[in-house]
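--- STAGE predict ---
source: upstream dedup step, 1 unique chain passed
mode: sequence only
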Amino acid sequence: MDQTEIFEAERPRLLRLAGRVLDDHAEAEDVVQQAWLRLDRAVSGDGTDIENLPAWLTTVTTRLCLDRLRARTPVPVEDLELDAGGAWARPASDPADDVALADMVGVALQAVIDRLSPRERVAFVLHDSFGFEFATIAAVLDTTPAAARKLASRARAKVAQPATDDALADWEVVDAFMSAARGGDLERLLELLAPDAVVGADEAAILVGTPAAIEGRDEVAAFFNGSAQAALAVFVGDRPGSAWFHRGAAAVVFDFEVRDGHVRRITFRADPSVLARVVRRDGAARR
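--- STAGE serialize ---
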């Protein structure tokens, strides 16, 4: 068979793979079409000789899915600049981040899927749903088989956690708030804020353009609605928070006070002694 016939024979499997990872049929169709375009360019453009086309298509499709997952969460930027309102923002040339992960992989996993990082999710789906060996998964993720095994095991443990009606953990409240802020979900912001929610700032943060004070749920929600596109998940000491980064270092921290599942206070901090305690996190885990 020629490459077109092989691709068409592989298309249903690639669609199942992309659909399982992304849980979005339209997006899966788009990813598989991108894989076809890459194949066409590779073969007709530079005459690349692909020894195992099904494996090549699997790798390309999975990496495209991984790119999509990563694009749904904020990623570090090399530099940030002050916008017209005096707030830290991405440079205009950078692509905007999409909303955070939501409605993934089916009803059974909805309660825990947000706890999986993109790499955990890919390792979990490839191994547990499609039976790929960890050596193959490692090649896709550009890591070692042992690391791929650990990613899948960690994801499996998270998925296996029993559902609970307990309130969200503090880090889940923080991440849900930041997701709603980036996505412009005003209703969700209002749900997550306490009625007497306030925003404050230390002197160092005020000097770089953050507001000194905002009071009241409506005012705080309006301020964050559609903002904080470049903020990344962090720990401030032991507290989950978020932060703007400048050239790889925390520049301004969003220090959250969460009580009974609601955000009571957010304090912008840029004091060096506070920034020194900031570490990146992935959900509840330190990175």
